[in-house]
Amino acid sequence: MMQIVTCWLEHPGLIPAYEAAVRGARVIIVDQASSPPVAEALDAMAARLGHGSLVVRSAENLRFAAGNNVGLEVAAGEGDAGAAIVCLNNDVQGPANPANRWLAMVERDVAAGALYGPAALGFEVDGEAYPYIEGWCVAATRATWAMVGGWDAVTYPEAYAEDVDLSWRARLAGCRLLQTPRWPIQHLSNRTNATLPGAYDHADAQRERFRGRVRAWRRGELVIGAAA
Prior knowledge:
Blueprint: E1 3-8, H1 15-22, E2 26-32, H2 36-49, E3 54-58, H3 63-75, E4 84-88, E5 92-93, H4 101-109, E6 114-117, E7 120-125, E8 128-133, E9 137-141, H5 142-148, H6 162-172, E10 176-179, E11 186-187, H7 203-218
């Protein structure tokens, strides 16, 4: 069965649209120290979703990369190597069709050796563009996530540029980046970070870390492997 990993902190108002979008999958919510009422609401949502859906609790806000890795570790223990695992933001909205056809598209499209997502951009380093799948929705098989090594929470402890680095490492590992704009899942941009104090404070530094890693790699001073 397809699995979805989502980091969550507060924002109970996002639950109805999110729940409608992910119904039919096994959902792993990584609750990053939400208040008790929101924690209870997340537990109730997981119970309604069924299929072994669960909430993993953290005593602190681990941030995006580390939180996703917690969920991926749980997801890695279930299903076969070719099953799809999606890292999905909580500020999303699915199609009006209750059949959730986007989930069927994910299961049909996702194959080994690629990262998939509905939105892709390019990040420039010294005049060269580095394509990446936007981090709000990134899908891959269980085996591909393992090959890439998940998200780099050491280099990127705060928000931003983690998806650029993930896509870069995936390409260096021999993976393709495949944009899937036909997946009818919509990102309700910045519904979470816009209300989190300090969410943007480290964005420029995070982006500069990526540039520094690329430059070091070009000079042969950095070796990128699955655990980079």
